[in-house]
Amino acid sequence: MNLEEKIMDGIKQAMKSHDKVALESLRAIKSAILLEKTSGAKGELDQAAEMKLLQKLVKQRKESAEIYTQQNRADLAEAELAQAAVIEAYLPKQLSAEELEAEVAAIIAQTGASSPAEMGKVMGVASKALTGKADGRAIAETVKRLLAR
């Protein structure tokens, strides 16, 4: 079952259970998938593109929540975080900080990088290997920290 089918099933369940937050979140995912499929001549999305799309949606929700929090709009921030949680349920389990560090250390050893100047080489491999498992910013920070040692 691909992501689009899972989303459609989720929408049906949310409608039956009258879960407005889930319904709104899932419709946003469906909309983003349709937009991505129709932009250009792509047709179908592969799993990596789907994960990237979901991560983008979660990141947008969290950034919006942060802005709302800064503006003392806790009600709106709470709604954004609730949507982010629903979307995250469709992502694979995220790596913990320790697991991420271990994965990145293995990639650094594999590529033979030894200085911060080689960060680009490591990031290319790490981004592909850890797609959907960790946020790009967290990967970059970990790579930078490990190469600086």
What's the layout of helices and strands?
Layout: H1 3-17, H2 20-38, H3 47-70, H4 74-88, H5 97-111, H6 119-129, H7 136-147
What percent of residues are in strands? under 5%
Order of helices and strands: HHHHHHH
The residue-averaged pLDDT reads 88
Largest sheet: number of strands, sense, barrel closure:
none
Structural class: mainly alpha
Helical content (DSSP H or I, runs of 4+): over 70%
Give the radius of gyration.
Answer: 18 Å
Shape: globular
**Spatial gap, N to C terminus:** 44 Å
Count of β-strands: 0
Uncertain parts: none
Count, helices = 7
Oligomer: single chain
Q: Could you walk me through the main structural features you see in this protein, from its secondary elements to its overall organization?
A:
There is one protein chain. With 149 residues, the protein is mostly helical. Helices cover 74% and strands 0% of the residues. The chain has seven helices and no strands. The protein has helices spanning 3-17, 20-38, 47-70, 74-88, 97-111, 119-129, 136-147. Helix 2 (20-38) packs across helix 3 (47-70) and helix 3 packs antiparallel against helix 4 (74-88). The termini are far apart. The model has no long low-confidence stretch (mean pLDDT 88).
